[in-house]
Structure formats: structure tokens, C-alpha cells
Write a structure and sequence with these properties.
The chain has 459 residues and is mostly helical. 78% of the residues lie in helices and 1% in strands. Helix 4 (76-104) packs parallel to helix 8 (146-159) and helix 8 packs antiparallel against helix 17. The two termini are 30 Å apart. The model is unreliable at 1-17 (pLDDT under 50).
Length: 459
């Protein structure tokens, strides 16, 4: 590769917001001289925007336990609906958001997705300023915060193109953690803000920060020409039907679906199971632990293999849910909190390890079909694998987010019909055991004439 070829992307990148025509992160020379710096800068602003997306997405998780201050009274079922609808909309928004960077460019779509966050913030202010608003209107306004949930898919599918295949675990984990921790930031900082300035301030506070994020994306991010294309409906459907996309979507229900489902419902569960406890003082801890654990999961996956980390992680998740069950039966608040924080930690580790798996799976499968001695064939195969992995990441993130809806509704049905959280915990423990079996069967079980598993091949 000539020196001119290496420097050209850097020259474009320093201009701010320009298209980069050539990008080859798997080329060690390119990565060390140009790629790393540009990738880190794009990652930093991607994290900022995704972080604010999560902050806005989780607005109603803290609002529902404070609505009484503005004269709105809801039962536990209505409260869980008000947190479920944003989760549901956020899940569906992840599908079109996945393909936004490929269609418009990563930098361009980050600007758009940031500015869209102004809509739910403004509507939140309107809702809180009009406490006589009907419940159905509250649901519609809460639904708009789902725009923040879509940011994750566009951010992850964009950043996966910037890093070498063997170094994606940590940056993807950091990108996701930076977003996920927005959940905890909202739940930690909003209660004192509510005390100081009222519930309406929860909507106002994010608007100037959103404008800063959009400006940062405009001046400091880039579009990768090699990562842009328009996906056809047929191609999207084909990728979504691939066996590994389906399997990883199910596993992601168990990891991210659990994280977001518990994050939305944790405050309601605390208030219901331990009414003497001030839920707002603890609700943020779960999301914080899960967010911090996510890059740890990515780092462990880089070193030990994503499939192996995912397998053992689901075992610990099942144990954690059993501990929560025991705490509920014993009426022990301390054990309940400790057990739930363990579960939150495993959701984060599993989020990191599963997202490390997806690019590795598609790369491995693509290289199986080409002559390894032909550089052109290898380069084409890797490019196709990146494209498919980016789509699979978005699809899996959408399905995983839907898992959060299922978890919240499982709790709602359990509490309203059985008047107990135990049936929901039993369902969750069984599901995590199913994920253990699925991970082993698909990625750890040794098969074929060489008696190797996909985990042995780097998955």
C-alpha cells in the first residue's frame, strides 16, 4: 500500500464530517498509521449520542414513580404499561435505524438520530405540564421516547465497520456500555433534579445536551463510503432468516432483553415487593452495574472467546434469578438487591460477549467458502461478512429489545394475575437454562471430521 493511499483517509477525516473513500482496518499498516485515531474519534461521539438516546428512552422509568407529585395516579399495571410501550417502540425502531448508516452514512445518520431526541423531550414537558391528560395520551407520548432506543442499532452497526475483526469486542462493548449507562444516569440524576426543579425539568435538561451531541457528530464524525449501501427488503429478510441470526437474536433476548426489561421495571418491582424502601435511591444501581459490566464482557470475549463467556454467563444468570426468588420468599431486601445486581452484571457481560460473537460468526462462515491463498477472494469475503454482521447486529438488537417487553409483561401478568412475582422468576430461570443449552449446541459442541466447534474457530 502506498503512503498516499494510507494518508488519504486521514486528510479527509481531519476536515470533519467528510466522506472517507478507503477504509481497511484489517490492514495492520493502515490501522496503525491512520485507522486507530479516526476510529477512536468516531467511537467517542457515537458513545455520546447513544448515551443520550438511552437517557431519553428511560425517561418514563423514573417518571412513573413520581407522577403522583403532579396529580397523576396509576395502578401497577398502568405503570408497567407506561414503561413497556417505550421499550416496544424502541425495539421496532432498531430495524430501520440499523440500515440508516448504510443508507445515509454513519455521521449523517448520527446527526439525524440525535436531533430526533428533541421530540420526546418536548412532549414529556407538555405531558407533565398538563396533569389532566388522559392515560392513552400518556402512552402515545411515552412511545416517542422509543426513538432513543433506536440509536443503539445505528450506532453499533456503524462502529463495527471501523475496527479490525479481531479487536471488535472491546470497542463494541464500550460503545454499548456508553449507551447503556445512560439508563443509570437518568435514574440517578433525575430524582434530585425532580426535588429541586420539579418533574417537568426531566424533559428540559436533555435538550441542550442533544444539540451538543448533534454538533459533535457534525464536526467530528465521518461517513465510510465502503460501509454504505441500500439493503433491499429481500436481502434484509434473507439475513434475518440465517440460522445464526436467529440463534443470536434469541441469545440477545436473554442478555440485552433482560438488561432493558429489568431497567424499565426495577423501580416498580422494588416499590411492589418492598414498599418501605425508597425505590428512587436504588433503581439506578442495576443499570449502572450492567453497563459497566458490558465492556468487561467484550474484553473477556476477545481473550477467551464469545461463545465460552456467553455459556457460563447464562448459567450464572439462572443462579442469580434463583437467588432473587429466594430473597422474595424470605422477604430480605438486602439479598433481593444483591441478587438483582448480580443478574444485572451478567446481562452486561452477556451483552458484550454476544456482540463479539456476531462478527466472528459471519467472518468464519464467509472464509470457509473461499480460497485462503487468494487475497482478493479473502478481502471480498471479509467485506461481505462485515456487511452481513452489521445487519445481523441490528436485527438481533431489535429482537433483543423486544425481549425487554416480554420481561415487563411477564412481571405485569405475574403481579396482576397471581399477585406474586415468583411465577415470572420461574419463567425467566427456565429461559436462561434454554439459552445455556442453545449456546452449547450451536457453538461449543464439537462436530465434523475435525471434531471442532465454532468456539474453537474463534467465535
Amino acid at each position: 500500500m502506498s503512503a498516499l493511499t494510507v494518508q488519504r483517509p486521514e486528510a479527509e477525516a481531519t476536515a470533519g464530517g467528510r466522506w472517507i473513500e478507503h477504509w481497511a482496518p484489517d490492514d495492520e499498516v493502515f490501522w496503525n498509521t491512520t485507522g486507530r485515531r479516526v476510529a477512536r474519534r468516531n467511537l467517542a461521539w457515537s458513545i455520546v449520542t447513544e448515551h443520550l438516546g438511552f437517557c431519553v428512552w428511560l425517561l418514563w422509568s423514573i417518571a412513573v414513580i413520581n407522577l403522583g407529585q403532579v396529580g397523576v395516579t396509576l395502578d401497577v399495571g398502568q405503570q408497567l404499561w407506561l414503561t413497556t410501550v417505550p421499550n416496544l417502540v424502541g425495539a421496532f425502531m432498531r430495524v430501520p435505524y440499523t440500515f440508516g448508516p448504510a443508507r445515509f452514512g454513519g455521521r449523517n445518520f448520527t446527526i439525524i438520530s440525535a436531533l430526533l431526541l428533541l421530540i420526546p423531550c418536548a412532549l414529556f414537558v407538555y405531558a407533565i405540564s398538563n396533569p389532566d391528560i388522559p392515560f392513552w395520551a400518556l402512552l402515545l407520548i411515552a412511545a416517542t421516547t422509543g426513538l432513543g432506543g433506536g440509536n443503539f442499532a445505528s450506532s453499533m452497526s456503524n462502529i463495527t465497520h471501523y475496527y479490525p475483526s479481531h479487536k471488535q469486542g472491546l470497542p463494541l462493548g464500550l460503545n454499548a456500555a456508553g449507551g447503556n449507562i445512560g439508563t443509570s444516569v437518568t435514574q440517578l440524576t433525575m430524582p434530585p433534579l425532580i426535588v429541586a426543579a420539579g418533574l417537568v425539568a426531566v424533559g428540559w435538561v436533555w435538550m441542550p445536551l442533544v444539540l451538543v451531541a448533534a454538533a459533535g457528530a457534525y464536526f467530528f464524525m465521518n461517513n465510510l463510503r465502503t460501509a454504505t449501501s441500500s439493503y433491499t427488503v429481500r436481502e434484509m429478510g434473507r439475513i434475518s432468516r440465517e440460522p445464526h441470526t436467529v440463534i443470536m437474536s434469541v441469545l440477545y433476548i436473554g442478555t440485552f432483553g433482560s438488561f432493558i426489561g429489568y431497567s424499565f421495571s426495577f423501580g416498580v418491582l422494588i416499590k411492589n415487593q418492598f414498599p418501605e424502601v425508597q425505590a428512587a435511591n436504588y433503581i439506578w444501581l442495576g443499570a449502572l452495574v450492567g453497563s459497566v459490566a458490558r465492556p468487561i464482557g467484550g474484553l473477556l470475549a476477545d481473550r477467551l472467546g464469545g461463545a465460552r463467556v456467553t455459556f457460563w454467563n447464562f448459567l450464572v444468570m439462572a443462579f442469580g434469578i434463583a437467588a432473587v426468588w429466594f430473597a422474595v420468599d424470605a422477604g430480605s431486601w438486602g439479598l433481593f438487591l444483591a441478587a438483582f445486581l448480580l443478574v444485572f452484571a451478567t446481562t452486561g457481560i452477556g451483552n458484550g460477549s454476544t456482540y463479539k460473537m456476531i462478527p466472528a460468526i459471519f467472518r468464519n462462515k464467509a472464509l470457509e467458502r473461499v480460497d485462503g491463498t487468494d487475497p482478493t477472494a479473502v478481502e471480498s469475503a471479509v467485506a461481505l461478512a462485515r456487511r452481513k454482521a452489521a445487519a445481523a447486529i441490528g436485527i438481533s438488537s431489535a429482537v433483543g429489545a423486544l425481549g425487554g417487553v416480554l420481561i415487563q409483561q411477564t412481571f405485569r401478568i405475574s403481579l396482576t394475575e397471581a399477585k406474586s412475582v415468583v411465577p415470572a422468576l420461574l419463567v425467566l430461570a427456565v429461559f436462561y437454562c434454554v439459552c445455556v443449552a442453545l449456546t452449547w449446541t450451536a457453538y461449543l459442541r464439537k462436530t465434523g471430521p475435525d471434531n471442532r466447534s465454532l468456539a474453537d474457530a474463534g467465535v
